[in-house]
């Protein structure tokens, strides 16, 4: 349970709010690269942390992320002309480059110096992994881009998508950091009866067995282990054969998770606040060389009746057929006889629970249990960091010499006798070491050119 | 005219408001029984007095009316699984019975006692007359169900419907307690010219003659008579032949009316606040044995060009074709030549005037006249009761040994010389006595089993 | 840049606001005469300065403009019966004439005097030039109607239209007082290359040459000249042949402009606030005898690819196909290759820039330049007048013996050597004198009968 005050601090992200100020200290996904398909293409409206922005790709391919409204008299630059390395306002032709510098003010006398006094708000961007990242904080506190492994990702391995969630970002985060609900919300009939395929033993179970374990032990024990980037936590279950299955999920401050996968993965899931009541769920590949199968859960859906969450829409924005307005197309007969939720789309099951909490859930009414340990820890980290900011506190998990964000890896395994789950997925894990060795011996691919 | 303060007190119904607290002291229609057609059926969203609730019928047929959001992390229980005598949350499988008791918390360790500490808000319900009634007030002030005659109603005589009004409940109530407007809003051409069918004399006029009287004397005199349950009032008109016609309407605190009928009726019309800006109009039969024709106004519409208000939709919720958005389908040619309002649906004529006052009418701007006596009296009773509550005042018209709500009966008649209208419809009225005698001699029918 | 406080004062128009009080001192277009096509026609909802009103034309043709809600119990008089010189409430038949006097209260006893105590809010109206004008201020400060030349306009020359703008009225005003943007927003390809048709010399250029001048000199110099009615300002451009082109636009307090035209015009453009976030753009003819071609810009669109703004819809309300919801149908290919804005409708180009500033633009964020001189002057005049009102300040530009609003005329010309632009369009301008003489010698036409 949170106090009303803490709930407000936790959830509000606009300019000048405590959490908004904290989030602005991190490089943040702003839009997908594919939304700006080429030089001088059509500008795109971007709403981020409660700010209305416009993104455009200039003649040289550079991306600008600027305030939507022209600093002159406020016309929307979304309707502007994207031409000759700048965005020109449709009202009086004032033109700004990607840095927000006014490079032409042709409605004023030729000798006017006024253009040097006018600046369009512009945020630094960095394109990496199919995503345009931006830094919305004060320039004097800007730290380097956090590379989760996208900077060296070969072009053909880039995969990034986003999907709209119509609720506060923290609700979506809390769902991502909740390993217990897969035993409930996402379940379907017959899973507990799946035949033992021989992988219910120490080591790496098949995905089918993983489903079986979740259905078998529906009250996982959670252990949270603090790290420099946030924490990793294990959801621990006993398998039908009495083995100890652990699913490790990573949390990197402020909004990033790597969901447990087999044997390990670095695939990122990030929850980016649009404003207080909406957020984007980004998911994208990183370091595919380490984990050639990409998302560990590819086969996850092979045994389930659900639609796969990672469809491949042309726009990069996965559409929503299942919404609050249509009750997520819940099928009560399906709910009675086939699936726990009655909802056929896996991710929409998550939307159903997180959005039905309301736009901003009132956490004074909640009753947290032992499976909410990771949720509680995330809140405490965020609240402490946000409240410490006005006193000069340094936000956690910023880029720094000792911070290699590519090493944040989730994992899933049936433990060997005496094995410590905290090793899994780390550099000390033999499976990871083997993968790194294999990657080093693989012929190099052409990396992305970081912007 | 009301002060702004009194208008706020009168109209606001949310938790913690004066009027909201008063209304919570009464058993209130929450939904129709037919909305929960059988054991383990689909749950139903209910919004009542500004609270979001879910109703469900469990495996044994018992109805639960509970808070919509799970006390764990707030997912909507509307999407829950209604199974094995309880509603199970779709997120983590926590399960609650109709009392709100957590009967299963399977995501927690088997030996956890946490489930005994978690309670889902649940309100007592009582099913009667095709309606699920609920008590939303504090348990310590709960009084018995007020039986308006539905508890003993035979199954085949049960009739209950509801229709949505998109305005504050008091506006709808005031329309129901306003006998004058039938001479105007609901009129149509040619009524005054209807031939005298011989019933314009002391006694019970035909429905056609009733229409004729309303059209003939369009400025009725109102007399209000206070009673233990609220009041009854008479609208008194002089007929073309010089007789005195009275229409008696009952008001039972807080939101119930019995509209004048011939010779008398107990048919209820209740106005139940959904929130401050919406309400349900419930209407339902009671004590049909006393009044075999049910609603006295069945023939009322035979002489009128209007659609009958009591259609019989399968869902129990009468749909609205005539809305503010379509100007209530007003036909100006019809208004000029045929009907006073230009609106062909009788009840929609009421919606047009009450909804067009705005979501919450500003009563500082009104100018009340002599025909508003009953309206004023209702407000005074409600305001006095609501304001007295914090000082321990006892709300009027609660269940009690001397309070037989079945005796609340409206009536309509042309008075005999010297006859007192206050007798009509009461136990002292010979017509009522005769009906009671006939009912007593009729073979018994199987009553509903009260829950 | 404005302070937040001044921005609020400038933009808010509801009852009791400073600017709302100022605007209520002027006769204001309320609706088009053609919206009330004949005696006893259907009433019309009017929202004006944040007030909900109803307009009706009575049996004798007189127009009433009254509060929407009946003073009795608030039912909307829009649904009322417009009959026998009054509007009758649909609820209880109370009837009001165009003055708001209760002329019938038939639901009350025949000898009741209550009707003399009840008054429906009614505003004085004056029909002129196809427009129903109203005065919404206090009666004691009412001044005569300001005749811009419509009172004597022959019936067949009356032309008045309105179109909805979904933004604060000041944004629309500022667009109308901004001669610079025609060199940008409204431009299209090839204009600068139009052949010299011989009118790029001192005197009156052709419309094609005017377009050429705007495209040639895209940074006009603005000069503002204060007048008794507000101001007139000139946008001064150098033509390809080195001549000095001036476009003079008139501003009459509070919301009226006459846009520069060739040789001169009195055609009015008025921006009438519906409420804080919506306004009507009225445009109408005046004194056609002086300027037989009516709107000077008839040929303006002959050389452009744009749709003409002055379409002739039956209702008088020009519909909007180009809206914020459809991004004003912007065609990015058209924007790249043909027009500056990519929007094919001339007026919708204006809507795009003024509406995309948001419902009420935050002027603390703007950066005004030399082309905004006229915009700044308008704001200063309005703010000074509004702030002075509580201290008894007299609003400018009210009707008075020395104030002939028919003399407010815009003009456009290439200046003769030594010519002062301040003379153009005034009584001292030979072209105007010639037109007045011609008008005086023309046979008289039947003027409108002012109401």
From TrEMBL, chains A, B, C:
Any one GO molecular-function label of the UniProt entry: iron ion binding
Keywords: 2Fe-2S, Iron, Iron-sulfur, Metal-binding, Oxidoreductase
Transmembrane regions: none
Region (Disordered): 387-406
Keyword Oxidoreductase: yes
PROSITE patterns in the cross-refs: RIESKE, RING_HYDROXYL_ALPHA
Gene3D superfamilies in UniProt: Rieske [2Fe-2S] iron-sulphur domain
Residues in Rieske domain copies: 27-134
Keyword hit for Oxidoreductase: yes
Pfam families: LigXa_C, Rieske
UniProt-listed PANTHER family: BLR4922 PROTEIN, IRON-SULFUR DOMAIN CONTAINING PROTEIN
Protein name in UniProt: Ring-hydroxylating oxygenase subunit alpha
């Amino acid at each position: 349970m949170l106090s009303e005050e803490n709930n407000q601090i936790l959830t509000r992200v606009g300019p000048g709010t405590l959490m908004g100020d904290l989030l602005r200290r991190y490089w943040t996904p702003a839009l997908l690269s594919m939304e700006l398909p080429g030089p001088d293409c059509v500008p795109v409206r971007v709403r981020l942390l409660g700010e209305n922005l416009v993104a455009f790709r200039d003649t040289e391919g550079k991306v600008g992320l600027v305030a939507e409204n022209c600093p002159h008299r406020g016309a929307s630059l979304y309707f502007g002309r994207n031409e000759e390395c700048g965005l020109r306002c449709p009202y009086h032709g004032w033109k700004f480059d990607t840095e927000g510098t006014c490079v032409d003010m042709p409605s004023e006398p030729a000798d006017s110096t006024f253009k040097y006094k006018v600046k369009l708000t512009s945020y630094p961007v960095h394109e990496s992994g199919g995503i345009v990242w931006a830094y919305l904080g004060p320039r004097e506190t800007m730290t380097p881009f956090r590379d989760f492994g996208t900077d060296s990702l070969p072009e053909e391995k880039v995969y990034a998508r986003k999907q709209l969630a119509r609720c506060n970002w923290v609700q979506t985060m809390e769902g991502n950091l909740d390993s217990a609900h897969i035993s409930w919300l996402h379940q379907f009939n017959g899973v507990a009866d799946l035949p033992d395929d021989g992988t219910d033993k120490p080591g790496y179970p098949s995905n089918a067995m993983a489903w079986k374990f979740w259905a078998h032990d529906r009250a996982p024990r959670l252990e949270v282990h603090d790290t420099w980037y946030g924490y990793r936590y294990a959801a621990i279950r006993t398998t039908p054969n009495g083995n100890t299955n652990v699913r490790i999920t990573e949390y990197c401050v402020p909004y990033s998770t790597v969901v447990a996968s087999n044997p390990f993965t670095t695939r990122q899931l990030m929850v980016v606040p649009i404003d207080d009541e909406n957020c984007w769920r980004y998911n994208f590949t990183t370091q595919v060389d380490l984990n050639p199968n990409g998302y560990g859960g590819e086969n996850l859906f092979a045994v389930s009746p659900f639609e796969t969450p990672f469809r491949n829409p042309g726009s990069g924005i996965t559409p929503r057929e299942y919404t609050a307005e249509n009750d997520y197309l819940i099928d009560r007969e399906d709910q009675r006889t086939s699936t726990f939720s009655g909802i056929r789309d896996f991710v929409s099951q998550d939307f159903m629970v997180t959005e039905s909490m309301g736009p901003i859930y009132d956490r004074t009414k909640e009753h947290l249990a032992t499976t909410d340990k990771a949720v509680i820890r995330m809140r405490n980290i965020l609240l402490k960091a946000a409240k410490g900011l006005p006193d000069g506190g340094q936000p956690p998990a910023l880029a720094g010499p000792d911070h290699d964000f590519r090493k944040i890896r989730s994992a899933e395994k049936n433990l060997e006798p005496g094995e410590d789950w905290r090793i899994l997925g780390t550099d000390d894990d033999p499976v990871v070491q083997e993968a790194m060795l294999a990657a080093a011996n693989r012929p190099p691919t052409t990396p992305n050119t970081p912007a």
